[in-house]
Amino acid sequence: MWYANSNLVVAISFILFFGILYYVGVHRKLGAALDARSERIRADLDQARRLREEAQKTFAEFERKRLEVEGQASEIIEHAKLEAERAAERAKLDIKEAVDRRLRSADEQIAMAEASAIAEVRNRAVQVAVAAAADVMKKRMPDKKADVLVGESIEAVGKRLN
């Protein structure tokens, strides 16, 4: 009996099963499904490759811009340092000039005060000398002659000292 051998029954069943699958066209559907899947995978890979290239380009552009901005920032920093040094030098010079001006002004004020004090002392000395001379003359001379001489002497001394 042909069905007594189980290997033969399994082999015939296997062949019949695959024959029915072939007749129904499962192999075409399976092939089409696999082809569609491989196309989707290929499209996904192509898209991933494009996205990767785009990302690399974008990264390279950002890296270039970053380096450019860093360069500009370092230039700005150097420029700011130079400007700060110049401003510090200008400030030092301005302060030195202001101190010099104040010293000159103080020297001028001292000289003016000194000249004023000397003039005041001279004027006071002249007044004292004139008053003393007038007093001495009044005591030694007669009144009329003394008045005339005192007036003339005061005028003469005033002209010589001023």
UniProtKB/TrEMBL annotation:
Pfam families: ATP-synt_B. Its main location: membrane. GO terms for molecular function: proton-transporting ATP synthase activity, rotational mechanism; proton-transporting ATPase activity, rotational mechanism. GO terms for cellular component: endomembrane system; plasma membrane; proton-transporting ATP synthase complex. Residues 38-116 form a coiled coil. The chain crosses the membrane at residues 6-24. It is found in: Cell membrane; Endomembrane system. It comes from the Bacteria. InterPro entries: ATP_synth_b/b'su_bac/chlpt (IPR002146), ATP_synthase_B_chain (IPR050059). It is a single-pass membrane protein. Keywords: ATP synthesis, Cell membrane, CF(0), Coiled coil, Hydrogen ion transport, Ion transport, Membrane, Transmembrane, Transmembrane helix, Transport. The keyword DNA-binding does not apply. HAMAP family: ATP_synth_b_bprime (MF_01398). Belongs to the ATPase B chain family. F-type ATPases have 2 components, F(1) - the catalytic core - and F(0) - the membrane proton channel. F(1) has five subunits: alpha(3), beta(3), gamma(1), delta(1), epsilon(1). F(0) has three main subunits: a(1), b(2) and c(10-14). The alpha and beta chains form an alternating ring which encloses part of the gamma chain. F(1) is attached to F(0) by a central stalk formed by the gamma and epsilon chains, while a peripheral stalk is formed by the delta and b chains. F(1)F(0) ATP synthase produces ATP from ADP in the presence of a proton or sodium gradient. F-type ATPases consist of two structural domains, F(1) containing the extramembraneous catalytic core and F(0) containing the membrane proton channel, linked together by a central stalk and a peripheral stalk. During catalysis, ATP synthesis in the catalytic domain of F(1) is coupled via a rotary mechanism of the central stalk subunits to proton translocation. Component of the F(0) channel, it forms part of the peripheral stalk, linking F(1) to F(0). The b'-subunit is a diverged and duplicated form of b found in plants and photosynthetic bacteria. This is ATP synthase subunit b. It comes from Thermohalobaculum xanthum. The lineage of its organism: Bacteria, Pseudomonadati, Pseudomonadota, Alphaproteobacteria, Rhodobacterales.
